[in-house]
């Protein structure tokens, strides 16, 4: 199990605290420092069953600079979105937990973290 976090994020800290409290075996990836490649983002999206725009923080300054709200949200635009996420990792929703069963969750709530824990 791996969790992508930004240590400055309270939801990330809460998720890590819950994983610790449950004695989970996991690896922390500080994705702003260890930036995921476009392929890694694509792999996580596949595990999540989501599209890149579903995990994009559209209120971030970089999103506004790029004009993401105007970008098409279709299959033809998918690669453009994934590239933007890999080039601007602050745009990636957090935390994301990749579970041992090959799935992943955006763990912004205690329920989502517990869901990931149940997928061992």
Radius of gyration: 14 Å
- CATH topology description: Glutaredoxin
| CATH class designation | Alpha Beta
Please trace the helix and strand order, writing H or E for each element. EHEHHHEEH
* CATH architecture title: 3-Layer(aba) Sandwich
Q: Could you give the count of β-strands?
A: 4
Say what oligomer this is: single chain
Tell me, rounded to a whole number, the average pLDDT: 96
Name of the CATH homologous superfamily:
Glutaredoxin
Give unreliable regions as ranges.
none
Give the spatial strand order of the biggest sheet. 2-1-3-4
Q: So what's the overall shape?
A: globular
Largest sheet: 4 strands, mixed
User: Which percent range fits the helix content?
Assistant: 25-40%
Number of helices: 5
Distance between the termini: 8 Å
**Structural class, judged by helices and strands?**
alpha+beta
| Total domains | 1
- What is the percentage of strand-forming residues? 5-15%
Protein name: Arsenate reductase family protein
GO molecular function, one term: arsenate reductase (glutaredoxin) activity
Keywords: Oxidoreductase
InterPro entries: Arsenate_reductase, Arsenate_reductase-like, Thioredoxin-like_sf
């Amino acid at each position: 199990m791996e969790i992508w976090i930004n240590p400055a994020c309270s939801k990330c800290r809460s998720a890590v605290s819950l994983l610790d409290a449950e004695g989970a075996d996991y690896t922390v990836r500080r994705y702003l420092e260890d930036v995921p490649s476009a392929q890694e983002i694509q792999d996580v999206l596949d595990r999540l069953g989501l599209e890149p725009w579903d995990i994009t923080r559209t209120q971030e300054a970089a999103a506004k600079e790029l004009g993401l709200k105007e970008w098409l949200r279709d299959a033809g635009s998918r690669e453009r979105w994934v590239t933007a996420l890999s080039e601007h990792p602050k745009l990636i929703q957090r935390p994301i937990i990749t579970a041992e069963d090959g799935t992943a969750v955006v763990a912004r709530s205690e329920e989502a973290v517990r869901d990931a824990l149940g997928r061992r």
